Amino acid sequence: MSTTRSELERIKAESRYLRGTLVASLADPVTGAISEADNKLLKFHGSYQQDDRDLREERRLQKLEPAYAFMIRARLPAGVVTPAQWLAFDAIARDFADGTLRITTRQTFQWHGVIKRDLKATIAAIHASLADTIAACGDVNRTVVASANPLESAVHAQVHAWATRLSEHLLPKTRAYHEIWLDEAPVDAARGDGDARAMTRVAGPDDVEPLYGATYLPRKFKIGIAVPPTNDVDVFAQDLGFIAIVEDGVLAGFDVAIGGGMGATHGDPSTYPRLGDVIGFVPSGRVLEVAEHVIGVQRDWGNRRERKHARLKYTIDHRGLDAFVAELERRLGFTLEPARGFRFDHNGDRFGWIEGADGRSHLTLRIESGRLADREGRAWLTGLRAIAHALAGADPSETAAFRLTCNQNLVVANVPAARRAAIDALVAQYGLDDGRRGSAIRRHAIACVALPTCGLAMAEAERYLPDLLAKIEHRLDAHGLADAPILLRVSGCPNGCSRPYLGEIALVGRAPGRYDLRVGADFAGRRLNRVFRENIAEREILDALDALFARYAAGRAREERFGDFLLRTGVLAPPTRIAAGVSA
Amino acid sequence: MPIAPLPEAMSAEALRLLDALDAAALWWLSGYAAALARSRATRAPSAPARDAAARERLTVVYGSQTGNAQRLAERLARDAEADGLGVRVVRASAYPTRELAVERLLVVVISTHGDGDPPDDARAFVDFLCGKRAPQLPALRYAVLALGDSSYPQFCATGRRVDARLAELGATRLIDTGEADVDVEAVAAPWLARALGCAREALEPAPARSATVTPLRAPPAAGEWTREQPFAAALLANQRIVARDSARDIRHLELSLAGSGLAYEPGDALGVWAVNPPALVAAVLEASGLDGDTPVCHAGRSLDLRDWLARERELTRLARPFVAAHATRARSDDLDRLLAPERRDTLGAFLAGRQPIDLLREYPAAWTAGDLVAALRPLAPRSYSIASSRKAVGDEVHLTVGVVAYEAFGSLHVGAASQFLAHADDDQRVPVYVEANERFRLPSDPTRDIIMIGPGTGIAPFRGFVQERREIGARGRNWLLFGNRRFRSEFLYQAEWQAALRDGCLHRLDLAWSREAPRGYVQDRVRERGRDLYAWLDDGAHLYVCGDATRMAKDVHAALLDVFVEHGGVDRERAEERLSQLVEEGRYARDVY
Ligand code: SRM
Ligand SMILES: Cc1cc2nc3c(=O)[nH]c(=O)nc-3n(C[C@H](O)[C@H](O)[C@H](O)COP(=O)(O)OP(=O)(O)OC[C@H]3O[C@@H](n4cnc5c(N)ncnc54)[C@H](O)[C@@H]3O)c2cc1C
Ligand SMILES: Cc1cc2nc3c(=O)[nH]c(=O)nc-3n(C[C@H](O)[C@H](O)[C@H](O)COP(=O)(O)O)c2cc1C
Ligand code: SF4
Q1: 8 Å CB contact of A62 and B240
Q2: Residue-by-residue DSSP string for B327-374
Q3: Where in the sequence numbering do the catalytic residues of A fall?
Q4: Residue B509: closest C-alpha in chain A
Q5: Strands (E), A285-360
Q6: Which residues pair with B509 in a beta bridge?
Q7: pTM of this prediction?
Q8: With contacts defined as CB-CB under 8 Å, which chain B residues touch A64?
Q9: Can you tell me whether residue B529 is helix, strand or coil?
Q10: Does the distance separating the beta carbons of A55 and B239 come in below 8 Å?
Q11: Comparing C-alpha atoms, which of B486, B518, B437 is closest to residue B269?
Q12: Residue A573 — very low, low, confident or very high, per pLDDT cuts 50/70/90?
């Protein structure tokens, strides 16, 4: 491990609060790319430079630079999108991007294929729709996710409010974003805007970024809020997880989990997925405080030499959980109450219509891999545009909205009963899936983006899923397991963007056509799976699964989940640790 | 015997020196002297010497873009010299126009370029001749050999102009102007013979000794590969260099000259002999109802009709003569009307994009194999600017080829050579030869800056220029202006230019994209960057323009005028002069097609 601070730390330090030379890079007419350093900084602004990997070799031979384009990620706390925003996002997808909208596993939207010349206009258009992309990526707190499960409408509304407050509160304060993308008059980079200090309790020495400081965090930081019994946000995969504690129908506060994360590197045991530890309970009123101080400790303790070990999960393991909590409570000035306890029964989405407490209805649609496009027989992008128009017109109270889920699905929420029929008609007309189509395993499958846009992909994921599912379904059928709800997750590399380490079955890419086959997680995001076969190709994958399906079909107990079965029957050794403090 | 134009003493002196020199040294000296003469062109030699010289000497002036006229002019001079006639051969741009008044015997060999324009090296000469400052020439006897291509509406326009103007100035025409089509020799050879005959009658033989021929470079060494005797180059690479979403096909070709002894300089072009597309040959056979196996004897050679069509005749370029020949057979009033002399423009419009096959299909007519071969124009080689420097690529030669392909008259039409090259594969051999282009050379002084304007395939020679300047470590700055349709798909050699910018081998790169915002062409960049551009030129930079002749070269020239007017503070007329001055100084060179 190197002993000097990582290259990225230098870039951040010299960036004048994320300005770098972005403006010059964007103006450079000779290339569709931006400079290496600006690349890193751009992430803090919510965009990644990528290139179409399908064309890389071809263009190299053509003596052309790679087909550079930018991925833009919106910051949508709790994944809420108004009908008006939807229409704006949809237009942006068609005007500037590759004609698709991509629901991510952190319930926000990504646009792919935006070329450099259009980048500024696109971000400005997103801003005009009253959303932004600030800190959607980068070494800061990312979009705060919250349970999209609409059962508990009242509580959900509160939870959504908290997600938004957290997200807003933890935003970087530099004006770089507004200057570069929105033509705001430059401020003296060293000064920043005045009320920055006021907005934070843990003001450090830095005037511009009281919370983050000039070098921001050592690594990305993620917060999620779950509303039991649904763990659709995979709260134990978050750096900081809040689990809503509802007592007598009222939101009392949150049990707090810290140190979750999925990312790992093949063949490097010093990197690993880790589930968050529940460290106590915090009343609603002190949520912001706790979040700020957890971030503060990570800011000061996190590893700035080796990015591979910079996530909170490693800070905790390297310093010890107790030491971390002690430091946290020292800074908070109070000790956390004991966790209240909670129960999760699944981490998926419930499809179809659900009646909300307030008589309004919510329709959850299945969106395979979160990709909204107009494809043969399923004009989903067009269909949802139609639905957005319908809602926009229908609902003066403006509560009707879309909610993106962390399982890459979509909820059409708060639909007045009177509109249900109209929505159903559109769903049918445009071949949208209200969850009644396809097998159980298909409904629960998640795949990350991977090729061709993801620069880190080692194997296909999103593009491979439909094909893979068909083949797996075929095997399941053969064993009479067609409607067994098994949790399948596919990632193109060990970074684990589809949270594959929490899949009952997971494929983690190693090379084109080759994956690690992992099995044995539970159905609620509480137990990590383990490698079952390393670096194998499709045929071996299917054969291995076929054998496991056979045993499952023959030996499963009533209601017994696939992952649990594998453990009970000793196909896998019992796990080393389950997310602490979870009362099952 | 003295060297004609020199006083006794001086000529003796010179002869003594010359005796001591071997052939190579003489060639060098001749070139050196020529350059010297050129730089002093404005200072005329003293009158008596001039008259004496002119009285017993043939002057051959040539204007040549791609070397044909030069070749012929030099041949005439050599033959005349061999016959012991006093003769000098001068490139039009090096000809001291003041001496015109005292010339007695003048042969002008000149081609036509652009859209009926003179070749660049003859612009000033033709302007002077046609201008008000041209003297009356009662004592002059002359003959003009015009080179051209009858597929252009302005066939041999420049030669015709020169001929008409000389007559107008009172000079006596010795023989009718020869109008050589692309099969140059057919007309040129007999014409030159007649011209030489006239010269003999006019001049009494001068001493064989007098080395008065001043070619600008040594003639081809024996055994060098030529237009008539091309080298079969092996194909090393044939790579499309526009992205898949580009509507056009533009290719980068690498050929091997290994073992040929062929040498080239950046700025030269490569002559390529193509084979017509088999499909087109088949189509012509079908449309004419002729049998490809019919042996045809023509011009003393016997080949099967199929081979004549595939290798010896133009099937992709249509010219007036064939239309005429076809008209007589097709008995079509439309065609006859088209051919009426006063209908030049409509004929031009009719020819545009048409190929013989279209004529055969639209106006069916009965052809015999022999007549068809005789009527079709002999296949001419195509030129391609060389896109490499030998210092960088050894004995390879690289080309940048825009592939001609377009839908017209209900079928796909393709260009003979570009298609031939585009489809060439590894085991293909391409018949090539080098067309030297002395007027498109890097500055001999490597510290000079250069400005290169080359949109589209016009980029080709500049790839060679930048390679060369890198290899010789030239300290002058390199500024490239490139344009095409789209940044993402048609930025030719993008990766190489980016690398050159990083390595400091390219100092400035300005781009223009015509099909995406902000739309623009290189001439727009020229105007926008006018201040810097003028400053560079003012500091002695050399300016090069390569690519499309019909529009780009004109538009860029116009833009340059604006630049001189705006930043040089001169009026248009003066600006024009400044530019032609640059041309004469060899600092504004064009390679346009
Ligand atoms: C779009 C998305 C996957 C999806 O199919 O939805 C995604 C896509 C990418 N992730 Fe991710 N990650 C996405 C959720 C996740 C998650 C899941 C989660 O957060 O619940 C994880 C695992 C949890 C975690 O953070 O540990 C995740 C762990 C990573 C990592 C590994 C981080 C680590 O600590 O090792 C990387 C690589 C890195 O950060 O160096 C990464 C990097 C990337 C990048 C940006 C690749 C890159 O850095 O160049 C991918 C862009 C691909 C593309 O073309 O769009 N992504 N990424 C998800 C967007 C979330 C969002 O809206 O913010
Ligand atoms: C000095 C010099 C340098 C050159 N350098 C290059 C170079 O570097 N790269 C390069 O690509 N070319 C270059 N050229 C042009 C090249 O020589 C050929 O003229 C060109 O490749 C076309 O030849 P071809 O045999 O493929 O087409 P041809 O068989 O000659 O057919 C071309 C004819 O097709 C017609 N035509 C073409 N396109 C269309 C259209 N869209 N619609 C209707 N009619 C059409 C035109 O009448 C044209 O005369 C250069 C020319 C010269 C004189
Ligand atoms: C770009 C270009 C434009 C031409 N334009 C004409 C023209 O307008 N009229 C014509 O008769 N010949 C035209 N020609 C044909 C040339 O005059 C012919 O090829 C001639 O042999 C060239 O002689 P040179 O090599 O001495 O320049 C043109 C050739 C080229 C390459
Ligand atoms: S898991 Fe790997 S391949 Fe998939 S999106 Fe994330 S980084 Fe890319």
Answers
A1: yes
A2: HHHHT-HHHHHHHSGGGHHHHHHHHTT--HHHHHHHS-----HHHHHH
A3: 73, 142, 220, 222, 448, 454, 493, 497
A4: A30
A5: 352-355
A6: B480
A7: 0.82
A8: 241, 243, 489, 491, 494-495
A9: coil
A10: no
A11: B437
A12: confident
